[in-house]
Amino acid sequence: MIRFFLILFVFFFQTNVAQDEAKRMTQEKFYAEKKLFILNELELNEDIEKKFWDIYEKYDSQRLVLSREIAMTNRKLLQNKIIEDFEIQELIQKTYENGSKSLELKKNMFSELSKIIENENLVRLPSVELKFRQLMISRARNNK
User: Fold this and answer.
1) What is the C-alpha to C-alpha distance for residues 131 and 37, in angstroms, rounded to an integer?
2) pLDDT by residue for the chain (144 residues), tens digit each?
3) Rounded to whole angstroms, how far apart are CA atoms 98 and 60?
4) 8 A C-beta contact, residue 42 and residue 121
5) Among residues 37, 54, 34, which one has the least CA distance to residue 116?
6) Element (H, E) at 136
7) Rounded to an integer, what distance in angstroms lies between the CA atom of residue 114 and that of residue 99?
8) Is there a contact between 44 and 117 (Cβ–Cβ < 8 Å)?
9) Does this model's pTM top 0.70?
10) pLDDT score at 8
């Protein structure tokens, strides 16, 4: 009986590890495609590419954390549960704070990027990011 549980445990553990690795590879593939897409669209040379990506990744990871926080706050606000007025006010205040943080992150990223890339590419970056998101959404819809 113990042998059975041991085999079952090992099988379950290996399955979970394999799923985690597959998910991680998917994330790695996503970021590799994003990097390639953005760098190709902006037509950056090799010298600028590394500097650009170091700055971009730093702020992009911070934006990801913040966007998750924003989504959680919005979810709490939109829940149908009855919550106290003070909780609603706190969530609304948090929404404003997150919006300010988001703008500050974008401002800092653009400030740093302006030192290494041309203004034309700086202005194009948000539309390139949007184009990539639309491409990923389109792919996801086609894979269903």
Assistant:
1) 9
2) 555 444 545 555 555 544 555 555 588 888 889 988 998 899 888 889 999 999 999 998 898 888 888 888 878 777 756 567 777 788 788 888 888 998 999 999 999 999 999 999 999 999 999 999 999 889 888 875
3) 15
4) yes
5) 54
6) helix 119-142
7) 22
8) yes
9) no
10) 46
- Residue-by-residue DSSP string for 31-77: HHHHHHHHHHHHT--HHHHHHHHHHHHHHHHHHHHHHHHHHHHHHHH
Q: Retrieve residue 107's tokens.
A: 């401002």
Please give the Cα distance from 5 to 26 (Å, whole number).
Answer: 31
CB burial of 37-76 (b: ≥16 within 10 Å; e: otherwise) equals: bbbebbebeeebeeebeebbeebbebbeebeeebeebeeb
